[in-house]
Amino acid sequence: MTLNEYFRLKHVPFLDVLSGICYLNWIPIPIIYSLYLYRYKSKRDYIDFAFTFLLTNMLGFIIYYIVPAAPPWYVALYGFDMNMKAPGSPAGFIHFDQIIGVKIFSSMYSKNANVFAAIPSLHAAYPVITVLYGSLSKKLWLHIGFVIFTLGVWFSAVYSGHHYVIDVLAGGTCALTAFLLYRLLSRQPMINRLLVAYSKLI
After folding, report:
1. Residue ranges of the chain with pLDDT lower than 70?
2. Which among 192, 85, 69, 199 has a CA at the least distance from the CA of 122?
3. Where does the Inositolphosphotransferase Aur1/Ipt1 domain start and stop, copy by copy (predicted)?
4. Do 198 and 149 touch, CB atoms closer than 8 A?
């Protein structure tokens, strides 16, 4: 039995709500932090964060199309046969919708155009970027908060049945790879000059 299968049988209302809140903030919190860097730190910090975010997405989408992978909820419903017409599913987050009385996840995932994009998990990747750049804030409590937030999203991804553990680890690796690749590229003299010039324009 995988963790996804266990949590599908043993879900807890408190964790249903907590995991839903964490999952809903996978994009808002990184974006808010990037705006914080733009407003209160240097423009270069903001650019570094933004381009790492962009590179993470590029790597993630490339892998999606090279290695299409089904999420746990799909396997539970359809097995290992590829059904290209299968609609998206809120999976375990249906409990969040039922508890708060609003169909947030049900509505969101009904519009999912590609159910075979489980690996790498960009839900798991985005919070990692906030951890990697969290030290720029010079606030220890905020950096620790990003670590807790990342672990919360990772747990939520598995708890809800949207990702296997390997998907989550792949997402974290994707973000780290993008971070290291960007640092390598940004240190090239020509690229660094372009980034410096761009930071003066925004």
Report:
1. none
2. 69
3. 9-181
4. no
